[in-house]
Structures are given as structure tokens and as C-alpha cells.
Design goal:
The protein is mainly alpha-helical. Helix content is 67%, strand content 0%. Helix 1 (3-14) packs across helix 4 (67-79) and helix 5 packs antiparallel against helix 6 (100-113).
Length: 123
């Protein structure tokens, strides 16, 4: 239920929409979600966001070919200041990419986020 809230926060933190082939656009939160989040303590909001990011990471473990999911996870980790986790997610996403086009999208997104990845080709 908090997915849109987190994605909206991530999108706002990231600034302008990405270029074609970059990160997917995130949707903004509903008024109800904003109101609910506004009533939470900072610790509760942080815990909620961290929990959602952890759920996404777990889901990607079960479905590693979900390119959009990897792009969201990379962006979420970056917004949370977890750049090492974001770089690790990018590397895993590249290795799990279902095709060359997907791999290129992930590499472009990683570069856009300023992540350090070694471009050695698909492992």
C-alpha cells in the first residue's frame, strides 16, 4: 500500500524525468497516502520505506529478470544514500538482464545515478 508513496518520494528526490531508456518514471502518492505518511514519525516513515525497499529486493531475488524492478531498486538505494547497495544491485541486474537491450538500459540508469559499475560485458 505504500509503494506509490515511496516511488513518489524517490521521483521527487531524483528531479526531472529520466531520458528515454533511463529510469522508469515513478508515480506520486495519493492524497490519502500523503496524509497517512504525514502523521507518521520520522522513524516510522524511515522504517516503512526501508521495509518496502527490502520487499522489492526480496521480490527481485525470486524474479531476477524484472528490469523495471531493478531500476526502481537502484534508484531507491541511491535516494536512501546506500550507494554501495545500489551499485551491487546494478551489477546483479546487469548479470540477470534477459537481453542486451535490458542490459544497456540498466547500465545507462546506473551511469545516470552515478553508480560505480565495471562495464566488462555480460558475465
Amino acid at each position: 500500500p505504500w509503494r506509490a508513496t515511496v516511488e513518489g518520494a524517490i521521483a521527487r528526490a531524483g528531479g526531472a524525468p529520466p531520458p528515454a531508456g533511463g529510469l522508469p518514471p515513478a508515480t506520486g502518492p495519493s492524497r490519502e497516502e500523503v496524509a497517512a505518511a504525514a502523521n507518521m514519525s520520522a522513524a516510522d516513515r524511515t522504517a516503512m520505506i526501508e521495509g518496502m525497499v527490502a520487499q522489492l529486493a526480496d521480490r527481485l531475488g525470486d524474479n531476477p529478470g524484472d528490469v523495471e524492478g531493478w531500476l526502481r531498486l537502484m534508484r531507491a538505494y541511491t535516494v536512501l544514500g546506500r550507494t554501495e547497495d545500489a551499485s551491487s544491485a546494478a551489477k546483479t541486474a546487469i548479470a540477470s538482464a534477459p537481453d542486451e537491450e535490458a542490459r544497456q538500459r540498466i547500465v545507462a540508469a546506473a551511469e545516470q545515478l552515478g553508480l560505480k559499475i565495471e562495464e566488462t560485458g555480460k558475465p
